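Title: Request for sanity check on Bile acid:sodium symporter prediction

Description:
We are preparing a figure and want to confirm that the structure record we downloaded matches what your pipeline produces today. Could someone re-run it with the sequence below and paste the raw structure tokens into this thread? We only need the token string, no images.
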Amino acid sequence: MARPRFLPDNFTLMLVATVAIASVLPCRGELGKVFEVLTSFAIAALFFLHGAKLSREAVLAGATHWRLHLLVFLSTFAVFPLVGLLLKPLFLLLITPTLYIGLLFLCTLPATVQSAIAFTSIARGNVPAAICSASGSSLFGIFITPLLVSLVVLHHGGPGSELHSIGKIVLQLLLPFVAGQVLRRWIGGWVDRHKIVLKVVDQGSILLVVYTAFSAAVIGGLWHQIPLLALGGLLLACAILLGLMLTFTTFSSRYLGFNREDEITIIFCGSKKSLASGIPMANVLFAGSTVGVIVLPLMLFHQLQLMVCAVLARRFAVDQARRQATVGPKPHRGEQTSAR
């Protein structure tokens, strides 16, 4: 039996189920402390495996396209937070101040890796450049996101007193990532051959963080603090944010003279935010009682960006096929086209 097209992907369904379980059966007391320890180990394992997976050769392959990477970098770490700040009056009409902090946190995150590359490939964009931009965004995000949180979130009502020390950030995020990069020479091949292991750790750690975070939030009265109307407003706020960033990346790439393949790469790498990095980072940067509310905008934005970008990727692919049928393939793109 074919899967209904209206159903979200399996991981999104697992996220929804995890939130539901945490709402009904939150972990308390000593069990809650055990889950906090497990979550810390899971996050460290996640960033270790991401470090071991990240190929330096893949990053260097597209690193020379500096204008494209600069635009993606600015879109991810400058324009996104700026839009979030400028639209504060509008967003506060739609959502609660606490959800707005979560929306600001979303704006500081790095871009996705897997989905940005996958959508670029489907749309027949510049895949090597997408690999470089997405991987670089994920790497630099470890340093830049905590800095942006301190500059952007704290000055606009964020829970500054509850931020964890920089030592915990280094211990849980940076140190495991660097260790994975150092050991890639010996374990990189095994990681590449067993991608299912990374997928299990990736998704498992996110589900564990979500369960632990929402358990603490539910115990603290999460669903009593957020009215149903605010959830509808949050969906609208996420749609506005995504629409503006898709518009910015599209027209800025055209204004700066990028070709169609590069434009596609800029759109998919510069308008997306990483759930895989965001949820573990939120768990490290914020106290347990606030994490559930902080990651709620990210979870909603993640699903929205997947659905919208899937539609865009198919449209771009059709358009690219028509262009190639009309003018023929470009010789210098032959290697990329065959790779797809």
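Thanks, this matches our download. The chain has one domain: 29-323.
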